[in-house]
Amino acid sequence: MATMSLLGADNFRRFTPESLVAIKKRIAAKRDLPPAEKLRPQLDLQACQNLPALYGSPPVELIGEPLEDLDPYYHDHKTFMVLNKGKTIFRFTATRALYIFSPFHRIRRMAIKVLIHSLFTLFIMLTILTNCVFMALSDSSQTNSKETSSSKYV
């Protein structure tokens, strides 16, 4: 569960190249240590869920920006999180996308902003529904033609 040190808007920090270096150092330090009890991801900080009120409200300038992960489980994983206007948590890997784009590349940042926008989700849902409608229409026309062709011979 979250400790009292996690509370407040001042705990939302931008994900910077220095953050990535710190994660790599933690991974290297953990590799040198003997295996300890494994942490589990916090259930209230899962991806695609809303940020709990316990963590406060992030500043407006940090909405849609890569942030250091609040979940202690991910402190030694190369990940970062992004919050949208509805405070939904999106989690991304900090490794290079397509072996080209670092997490700080302009194109990748724009792709993340598009992905977390609510209109993009609406567009995807409408595309899926439209596809379902057209599939149902094409199936019904094929079914009718088979029925009429078989009824000729009966």
TrEMBL record:
<feature type="transmembrane region" description="Helical">
    <location>
        <begin position="114"/>
        <end position="137"/>
    </location>
</feature>
<protein>
    <submittedName>
        <fullName>Sodium channel protein type 5 subunit alpha-like</fullName>
    </submittedName>
</protein>
<dbReference type="GO" id="GO:0001518">
    <property type="term" value="C:voltage-gated sodium channel complex"/>
</dbReference>
<keyword id="KW-0407">Ion channel</keyword>
<keyword id="KW-0739">Sodium transport</keyword>
<dbReference type="GO" id="GO:0086010">
    <property type="term" value="P:membrane depolarization during action potential"/>
</dbReference>
<keyword id="KW-0851">Voltage-gated channel</keyword>
<dbReference type="GO" id="GO:0019228">
    <property type="term" value="P:neuronal action potential"/>
</dbReference>
<keyword id="KW-0812">Transmembrane</keyword>
<keyword id="KW-1133">Transmembrane helix</keyword>
<dbReference type="InterPro" id="IPR043203">
    <property type="entry name" value="VGCC_Ca_Na"/>
</dbReference>
<keyword id="KW-0325">Glycoprotein</keyword>
<keyword id="KW-0813">Transport</keyword>
<keyword id="KW-0406">Ion transport</keyword>
<keyword id="KW-0472">Membrane</keyword>
<dbReference type="GO" id="GO:0005248">
    <property type="term" value="F:voltage-gated sodium channel activity"/>
</dbReference>
<keyword id="KW-0915">Sodium</keyword>
